[in-house]
Structure formats: structure tokens, C-alpha cells
Design a protein that fits this description.
alpha+beta; 3 helices; 15 strands; 26% helix
């Protein structure tokens, strides 16, 4: 009997020690859970803050006040997409023009072509949403409600997700069945074609367009006075003008040519189209807005 009592007594500290270890483990697991939850919520707060900042910058920008604004496609505004489609990795069916004269009346809406898999990405350039294009998939507009655009200034914010080469990858073009009016990128040139295949010179100020880097391109499709600016509001690529032809832009295709070739793979965050060549200060104002919003360094 005495021996049994001794066994019970000697076993008590061991059970107590085991129980304490389980309690400690439970506390540690609880703390880990709280930390993970805090990190997740913190990340959500940062994302929400960036999105709110992007929307504020968009609303306060000078874009709507510059004469000749034809269309403005942007990826952070609540009015840009269908509410039900603003989900990460979700396919989108349309991209809305948020310019003041279009958004109220639902004009200039880009619609995806059949079976296109263009996806909404919530965390793209500067952690702001964008659309992801691949496999020559397109989103199109048959015609601008304002009519054709003879001379255009076009801004595009994008990030390639492929090894850019000397072959043209088309960011935007005219609508299907219309004459060419495209803006394309090469590894060291901007390629513009409004009837004539024109390229920025490689003689000076050559752009270096590479995989996974962010860019703001401003292109003037203006016949023999065409030119393009890459992350630079002051000096054009090649430091000169070239001929891109005299076709008009009647509608729009994003992501590839209007026949579904030479497609772009990567993120497109914002497209702004004016129906005239912008003046220097206007170009600087728009590029500064885009630079701040997407944290893309530019020469201004």
C-alpha cells in the first residue's frame, strides 16, 4: 500500500508537467493565429488604403478638364467594371469609359470578344488593380459615340509579362474590320501604325522595354508628326518625329490587333485617349498624375 502511494505521488509532477506543456502549446498556437490574423487584416488595410488613394488621385486629376478627351479606361474606380466582376482572377466582360461625358450615359463600353479570358487582378502595378491580357485575347468597342478620331494622343500604363523582342506586341488597335490604328511595343522602339508602319528611332533616347517592368507610354498618332514618349514627359523616344499614316480611329481593340494577332501579354492599368495632339504642359500634367498614382519614375 505504501508503495502504491509512493508511485502516485511520484507520478503527479510528471502529469502536471505534461498538462503545463499542452497549455503552453495552446497559448503558442493562439498567439500564432492572432499574429496571422493581424498580418492578414493589416494587408487588407494597406490594400484598401492604396485603392482609396488611387481613386482619390483619379478623381482629382486634370484629365477630365483637358479638352478633347474621347475615352478614359481606368482600373481602380468603382464605375470601371461590373460590381459582380470585381473579384481577383475573375473574368471581366466589359471595361467602362469613366470620362465625365461617358460614365453617366454608359457610353464607349469595351466588351470582350467571344471566349476571351481577360482577368481582373486586384494586386498589379503599385498594388492597384489592372486587367491581365494573354493569348491574343481582346476587348473591343465598335465605335466611339463622339465619332472618328483623326489625330490622337494616347496614354497607356502597362507591365509586360513576357520577354519583349524586336517583334511588335500590340497594346491597342482600331476596332475589328476597321483600318489599322495601332500602338505597339518592341524591346527598343514604339511602333505606331495608322496606315504606315512607323517606329521611333533608335538613334537616341532609346526605350528599354523589358519583362516585369512598369511603363507609361504617351503616343501621338499624328501623320508625319507622330512621336512617342516612354516614362518621359519631355523627350520623345528617338528624339524625333516619324510618319504613322493618316487612318482614323473609329473604335478600339485592347490586347492585340483588331484581327487577333501580335497580342500583348501582361497588365494594362489605364488608357486615356484624346482626339488631338496635346500641348507640352498638358502631356506633363497627365504623365505626372499617372507617375504618382502608379509610382513609376518619369522624366518631367
Amino acid at each position: 500500500m505504501a508503495k502504491n502511494k509512493l508511485n502516485i505521488i511520484t507520478s503527479l509532477p510528471q502529469n502536471k508537467h505534461k498538462a503545463f506543456t499542452l497549455i503552453e502549446l495552446g497559448v503558442v498556437l493562439l498567439l500564432i493565429g492572432l499574429i496571422i490574423s493581424g498580418i492578414t487584416k493589416g494587408g487588407q488595410v494597406v490594400t484598401a488604403s492604396r485603392l482609396a488613394s488611387a481613386r482619390s488621385l483619379t478623381a482629382r486629376s486634370s484629365v477630365n478638364n483637358i479638352a478633347g478627351l474621347s475615352a478614359w479606361y481606368e482600373s481602380s474606380s468603382k464605375a470601371s467594371f461590373k460590381k459582380s466582376e470585381i473579384i481577383n482572377l475573375n473574368n471581366i466582360s466589359q471595361w467602362n469609359d469613366i470620362s465625365a461625358n461617358s460614365v453617366i450615359n454608359s457610353r464607349n463600353i469595351l466588351s470582350k470578344t467571344a471566349n476571351a479570358n481577360i482577368t481582373y487582378r486586384s494586386d498589379a502595378i503599385n498594388r492597384i488593380p489592372a486587367l491581365y491580357f494573354q493569348n491574343n485575347e481582346r476587348i473591343t468597342l465598335a465605335s466611339f459615340y463622339q465619332g472618328r478620331i483623326g489625330r490622337a494622343t494616347i496614354f497607356v500604363v502597362f507591365r509586360p509579362n513576357f520577354n519583349v523582342s524586336g517583334s511588335a506586341s500590340i497594346l491597342l488597335d482600331s476596332a475589328p474590320s476597321q483600318s489599322s490604328f495601332y500602338l505597339a511595343i518592341k524591346n527598343n522602339q514604339i511602333n505606331l501604325n495608322a496606315g504606315v508602319d512607323g517606329n521611333s528611332s533608335t538613334a537616341s533616347n532609346v526605350p528599354s522595354i523589358v519583362n516585369s517592368r512598369d511603363y507609361i507610354v504617351c503616343a501621338y498618332l499624328n501623320s508625319t508628326s507622330s512621336q512617342a514618349y516612354v516614362n518621359n514627359a519631355l523627350t520623345s523616344s528617338g528624339s524625333g518625329v516619324f510618319n504613322s499614316g493618316t487612318n482614323s480611329l473609329n473604335g478600339l481593340t485592347l490586347g492585340a490587333s483588331n484581327v487577333g494577332t501580335s497580342g500583348f501579354t501582361g497588365f494594362i492599368s489605364e488608357i486615356i485617349i484624346f482626339n488631338r495632339p496635346l500641348k507640352l504642359q498638358e502631356r506633363k500634367d497627365v504623365m505626372l498624375y499617372l507617375s504618382i498614382k502608379y509610382r513609376i519614375a518619369i522624366v518631367s
